[in-house]
Amino acid sequence: MSKVHTEETATTSAPIAPDDVLAIVLRTLERQISDFRAHVDQQIQTLSARVDQQIADLRAGQKHGFSGVNDFRREFGEFRAQSQDEIAEIQHRIHEQDIRRQADLTGGAYARSPFSSSLQLGVKSTWSPRSDARQRGIF
To answer: Does any domain span residue 60?
Structure first.
């Protein structure tokens, strides 16, 4: 038995030839390169499918009139309308302040109209953003 044991030890502890080491390293590198290529190919397929889906979504959206440009135009139009309403409200407040200031300077009275929310000097005032702008010389 000891002879067999010695032979096994001798065969397992024998030095590995440099050519064998190179062959093992090359096989390992080839396997790693193959695995890496498979991973990259999978990533390319996944990204390609995503891009194809996004293109299809954009084309479908354009057919139905919902492109990014249309969304921007709609949102900008809503913003512009809201801004114009805010500007009209500010002009209305300025007009009311002018009426109060005129009433204070002239000793006159001002009151809210029962037909509108604007202040009136004396009996009647027909305020609108356009009439206010005309009074200020803008139009």
So the answer is: no
Say which residue the tokens 């002009």 belong to.
91
Instruction: Determine phi and psi for 64, rounding to 5 degrees.
Output: -95, 5
Count of the separate structural domains present in the chain: 1
Per-residue pLDDT of 19-35, as tens digits, reads: 888 889 889 988 998 88
Query: For residue 108, which of 95, 94, 126, 120 has the smallest C-alpha distance?
Result: 120
Q: In this predicted model, what pLDDT tens digit does every residue of 54-64 receive, in sequence order?
A: 888 777 766 55
Work out whether the CA dihedral 38, 43, 49, 55 comes out positive or negative. negative
How far, in Å, CA of 26 to CA of 48, rounded? Answer: 32
Q: Could you list the residue range(s) of the whole structural domain that residue 99 is in?
A: 68-135
In the structure encoding, which two tokens stand for residue 33, read together? Answer: 């390169």
**Residue at token pair 């695995």:** 35
